[in-house]
Protein 1
Amino acid sequence: MYALWIGNFATGAGASMSLPFLPLFISTLGNFPKWELTLYAGIAFSVTFLSQAIVSPLWGKMADRTGRKPMLMRAAIVMTITATLTGLSPNVWVLIFLRLLQGAFSGYVNNAYALVASEVPIDQSGAAMGTLTTGNVGGQLIGPIIGGTIAGIFGYRIPFYMFGLFMLIASLITLFGVKEDFVPPVKSKNQKDQSAFAGVKQIHVVWAMIISSMLIQAATNSINPIISLFVKELMHNSGNIAFASGIVAAMPGIATLISAPRLGALGDHIGPQKVLIAGLLLSGIAFLPMFFTTTVIMLCGLRFVVGIADAALLPVTQTVMTLDTPTEAISRIFSYNQSFQAIGSVIGPMLASAVAGILDYRYVFLMTTVLVLINLSVVLWAYRKDGVKLKLKH
């Protein structure tokens, strides 16, 4: 578990130290007008998650046959290669292709969770999952700050080389430090043919959680293609833009790290439904004022609030799915959820790039506010729908 914590930390830090500066890196690969730059940035961000959404179920099936450690090694080694080559990209199309390839072979963090869940004693699973989460979130927290400092001094290619180095470390740690006692499960023909949703009681709620995961990812990641460009505009193209972008990118991670344990305990006390709805309301309250942001400090503060909302959203959606899903179907339900999260990570940046290119960077925040309102409507509808059914049964 400690080896996987290091691997999760390396993955989170490596990815986050390079991604916030991807638009700035793309701007050095050609003389692009604003609309074209935002379009390429959106494609470069989204294409990774698009390939991940398509390929993820296939890797899941293979993990059931071969175990999770081979999947961890596959993800770490390929990401070592693709991250390093991305730093060597001669033009934007090579960069986009490498991002596509990286998404198709990624999945280190998800497989780390799956391996620990399958190996750890049931009465210690909560603590183990919490420990793994701090590794990934901790990496995402310091990654943008380190990457921003390095990019501001040495240029935008260096963080990608460091991402490759971090994944090489993760590969070695996983190879020598991770042990898996894997026994391929024996399934009957009926189990294979049965739908993953066959035994789900509150079907509308579970689907609402899956859709909610997609919309949360779309809203949260929508700013990624334009974050450094918007910070550049707020700073009037002067000062260490890369470092400031790194701080802005790190704000949600700081908030999530602080608030996630408390919000998890609150959900156990008052119920996950209330925490989820409160998180959606808080998210909308945070995104809307970003339209009127005039300084980087204001943007940092609002991004911190978004991080608190995120801490109340994604973990709660997974908790609700776990409570409402039979044990034998949890893995398949979660694979659907992961694919929908990846789809959200495609939709958000692409919509943001289109909005920013046609209108302005600020209008992206109005778009994310609309996504949050749609999400809230879906969740309320699902609870009302299944709530009526449960009352009829009683």
Note: DSSP finds 16 helices and no strands in the chain.
Protein 2
Amino acid sequence: MDSLRAVCSANNACSFITGGNLSRSKLSSNNIYYTSCCDSKASQYKRKTQIEYNVLSFKQSRLNNDYRWIEGKKHVGKAISRQDLDSEAEDSNAKTLLISINKFVVAFFMFCNPYSVIGRTFSTVSASLLVVEKLSDISLLFFIGVLQAMVPLLFMDIYVNGVNQLSDLEIDKINKPYLPLASGQISFTTGAIIVASSLILSFGLAWTIGSWPLIWNVVSCFLLWTAYSINGPLLRWKRHPLLAAICVWATWAVVFPITFFAHMQTFVLKRATIFPRSLVFVIVFMSFYSLGIALFKDIPDIDGDQAYGIQSFAARFGQKRVFWFCVSLFEMAFGIALMAGLTSSSLLVKIVTGLGHAVLAWILWYQAKSVDLTSKASIGSFFMLIWKLLYVAYFLMPLIR
């Protein structure tokens, strides 16, 4: 039975492979042959099937390995992606911080009213040069003395300009909405902290240096500009055009040149107190020029001043009248400087100061004729020109002796 089943199995297998064309009659005579043949082919089929199975198993194994490798790479990719995202987030935060710092620096720069700070700085240098009698006077001690005058007054400048903006917040929203406080770039609290800190630093540095002319300088500026800006009994001088003009004139024509000169003359160089011709000239020149600045600065602010009851000369007499009156004051200042230069004993000084102030006077007059008084931008541009011309004049003043 076992042999019969074996033969049958062999025949079936062989029949499957050969397509079933073998006859039963040949089975008896060729039993051994066909059995052997079928056994051989069955073995080959079995081996082929086994090989194909092994190949499929190998491919499946490779596929599983590849899948596991890809999964691993996916996890690594996810980890790298998170690291990149964290790095990008840190870079973004750093850029945001830098942008915020940059915006604050720009806003703080505008808060300090840069044109007046630059003007006061040139005033310091110009008045300090009046003490120079010979080239040896310009020494390390001289530069230290100039620096001593600059630093406390820099903080006083920040206080003066800051307290004015704090007091004029609502007015500036009409007249100068681009200012840091009016535009909201700097909060009222931050502005108050800056102002208070600057005042303390100004007094502290002046007292530490120990120069009485500098101490009188910061005290005078504090009193004058606090009275000018703050709203209180007998204060808020800017509401009264005459008091406002006196405040500007006293600061730029009297306090600055006298105290800076006295600081360098008596405290730095240890010389006797004198009142030279050159200092008198600076006081006279700045009396006209500072008065012109005091009146001119209210011309573009007429709308806000009228809304809040500030009767400036521009609001009272009209922009056009005040404008040309201010231009006349500036031209008179340059005329005085030209005449003072021509009286100098040095031919070179006569040429430089005479020609220099004549050119400044011509530039001012030429530009004044093209100002559009209905445009705040045009008025503001001319106001900046006034300061730039003063910067140049400050370098010509020490030449006149």
Note: The domain at 100-236 is CATH 1.10.357 (Tetracycline Repressor; domain 2).
Protein 3
Amino acid sequence: MRTIFVNLPVADKEVAKTFFTALGFSLNPQFEDETTACVVVEENVLVLVHEPEKWKQFLHSEPAPGGTNEVMIALSASGREECDDLKAKALANGGAEYAPTQDHGWMYGVSFRDPDGHVWEASWMDVEAAAGAGAGAGEA
């Protein structure tokens, strides 16, 4: 199994640690130093949050087309309730609204920004119903 390391710039790693642990994620001190913390989303999905000076060490090129290096981080959820719970925790702990809830019957998703503005999504999909609905790539 591969491990996915997501690296994100943050203004303050302590604020980021507080936010992500409030969402129910844990921390891995093995990858932490004065300017970086490691958030464990799942055993093989780790988010390293870096304060500005450390983040600059990772930049080796110009921004991607459109002038950004940003990504949207999407997490699967066990159901609608888990989606709503994660968003509620995010908003209660320094996160902000991003986009309206998406409810397609067979697929449900919420989104929010973390305290540094990064976009996170939580989504649930009924795979069998999605096949019957003719859901394909790009149909959200």
Note: Strands lie at 4-9, 26-27, 36-42, 45-50, 72-76, 96-97, 102-103, 107-113, 119-125.
Protein 4
Amino acid sequence: MPQYYIGIDIGTTSTKSIVFNKDGHIISKASREYPIISTMPSFREQDPEEILEAVIHTLKESIRVGNINPNDISFVSFSSMMHSVIAVDKEGKPLTNCIIWADNRSVTYAEEFKKNGQGLEIYKRTGTPTHPMSPLYKLMWLRDNQPEIYKNAYKFISIKEYVFYSFFGDYIVDYSIASATGMFNIFDLKWDKEVLGLLGINETKLSKTVSTTYSLKNINGELCSQTGLNQNTTFVVGASDGCLANLGSNAIQKGVAAATIGTSGAVRVAFDQPVTDPEGRVFCYVLTEDKYIVGGPINNGGIIYRWFRDNFGELEVKRAMEMDSDSYSLLNEYIDNTQPGSNGLVFLPFLAGERAPYWNANLRGAYIGISDAHKKEHFTRALIEGICYDMNDILEAVKELVVEVESIYANGGFTRSEEWVQTLCDVMDTKVIVHENYESPCLGAVMLGMLATGLVEHLEECQDMVKDFNVYNVRKENALLYQRLFKIYKKAIANLTPLLESLAEFQNK
């Protein structure tokens, strides 16, 4: 009987393929990175062929490294980044690169729809906030700025759709990826005709929508030989990386949230029906027909810690090289040895604009309250506290909409710093649990694959595959301190937003 499951995560900077056994233990893994192409300041693209090659390579390599017999593979299931769009011709050849979520070329379209109120109405039906990340606004830009490509495009698809078309010759998109396009009604699970009317297209320009448990067999013969798989291996279409990170973290129960801080970050909870926010602060994406993921992403997670290290941590980088150590470990010592609250120094972590809960690409960062008593260690700790305030801002919006959150499953690179995790715990005034598996989107894809292939009847049956690692409880004195500082943080954003937007306009020119 087949005993191995493969989860593939098509991420922003790399693709990972991981072989799991039935208990959720990792048998083998492979990854391949690829670059982001930026031909203009606001453009962020990738080569679809490079990503397809990464999927094929990592799939083949994970099987080889694990010495896995293809007959022992039950299924291959997919996780993928959201908000990507590619125009393809009738032969399935790309007319554009893959325009990814970080692309901001359509910022003026998003701003216009935010101001005229149409964006909020579209969001209320689709669950995708009004922001240039949304393929809806990317397609508006393409229509007006590259009309020949727009006119000649046979389909507009995501990177996962491109991979599945290459494997099977069919254009399909799962409800989860579709629900992050801004063009899909999450209440009736169909393409939104009113939105398509705004774009001047119909459903034939988009892929057929399918459940996240939809499966296919008979992989393309050439790819079958390249990967070493059998043609009758089951492929499960899967869902988006954010939704599957929740599933792979055990955060699909009432009262449980998932918090991720890697390059960027996110806070998400599962809900049993679609829900949108009257203020448009959070997204709502589909996991399955009876599980919806509500939450928000931040642009500014670990990437701004790296910015701080690269620009202000020269001494720590040099010392780390001399000691054959890690520069982040030295910076983390500043965090560990500095009092919570950073002596009243507050950081607004908006170096790359911000998504949730403000959805404002023109926000900018700031240190507030600097005095001559502040030293490097205060600036270091204030930076990670600012990221935690940003995450808490999303959690507060989520709690208003759905449920009280009693515990948070944390994952991502920030969990390597115990004090950072404890700070998030104190800022959110909620117990935080870190589990030993850092590959939650791949594990989530496998769990969904188990549901799709009938190995389990309910996703909750997969909970034992997630192994808890450490539990952080709230330090009440610090939680009270952070409540005061969080109010100042919120007030600072409200008062400084016009000024920050003016500076962004100056910078953009």
Note: The radius of gyration is 22 Å.
